[in-house]
Amino acid sequence: VFFALYSSLSSAVELRHAPFLFWINDLSQPDGLGITPLLMGVSMFFQQKLTPQSAMMDPTQAKIMQMLPIIFTFFTFTFPAGLTIYWLTSNCLSILQQQVINRIKTPELQD
């Protein structure tokens, strides 16, 4: 989905200079103000904190996982704004889903 959306947004003629919301005037070009990449990085960080980590994760792998939101934030500065909005929306929905899952109480085990 990611690569298909990237290529279609990069080459979509009908999206060029078509206003979207607020400061985003072109979904096929990177966000000129850099707000959506920053929001995506913050949402990815919170999503990562809410998701349970495996106890058997290697410490090196854990450090890499902690750095991924920062790395992807820098990558998304060059991505089309539509792709960054898609990723941001996906992260926000995942955060909401994880919040619901974390609040559901598991039934007590009966003997």
Care to describe what's here?
This protein has helices at 2-11, 35-50, 59-76, 81-103. By secondary structure, the chain is mainly alpha-helical. The chain has one domain. Helix 2 packs antiparallel against helix 3 (59-76). The model has no long low-confidence stretch (mean pLDDT 79).
Q: Pairing-aware structural class of the strands and helices?
A: mainly alpha
Q: Beta-strand level of the residues, as a percent range?
A: under 5%
Distance separating the two termini: 46 Å
Shape from CA axes? elongated
Order of helices and strands: HHHH
Question: Which bin fits the share of residues in helices?
Answer: 55-70%
Overall mean pLDDT stands at 79
Number of strands: 0
Whole-number total of structural domains: 1
Give me the Rg, rounded.
Answer: 18 Å
Low-pLDDT segments, ≥5 res: none
- SS summary, helix count: 4
Characterize the biggest β-sheet: none
SSE blueprint:
Blueprint: H1 2-11, H2 35-50, H3 59-76, H4 81-103
Helix pairs in contact: 2-3, 2-4
